[in-house]
């Protein structure tokens, strides 16, 4: 019969001579498991092994949480960009309005409506 290390064991150690005289299998019982149990342990966690429904649900929740964080991040970035673009557009509109007012004041000829064709040519 073959024996394998237990998954709960952090390290393996050789029992000292004092413990071997009292109970030679005492420390081994905590670290070693039967081959059938060990192969079942590794089969459950192998790369191609079928996952339990709990593992599938946990992974799905993690994927959904990551998707939600990504969606929130991109929504925040999009909102920042939209507000920045709106501010820049408002500033451009204000500059255009100021320039138009200055042009109209400079070119106003006292007639209404103040258009170029109302000017008197000499």
UniProtKB/TrEMBL annotation:
Compartments in which it is found: Secreted, Extracellular space, Extracellular matrix
InterPro entries the record matches: UCMA (IPR031386)
Region (Disordered): 1-28, 68-122
Keywords: Coiled coil, Extracellular matrix, Secreted, Signal, Sulfation
Taxonomy, superkingdom: Eukaryota
Biased composition (Basic and acidic residues): 68-81, 94-108
Main location: secreted
Pfam family, one: UCMA
Cellular component terms (Gene Ontology): extracellular matrix
Biased amino acid composition, Acidic residues: 83-93
GO aspect biological process, one term: regulation of osteoblast differentiation
Family listed: Belongs to the UCMA family.
Annotated function: May be involved in the negative control of osteogenic differentiation of osteochondrogenic precursor cells in peripheral zones of fetal cartilage and at the cartilage-bone interface.
Protein name: Unique cartilage matrix-associated protein
Species of the source: Monopterus albus
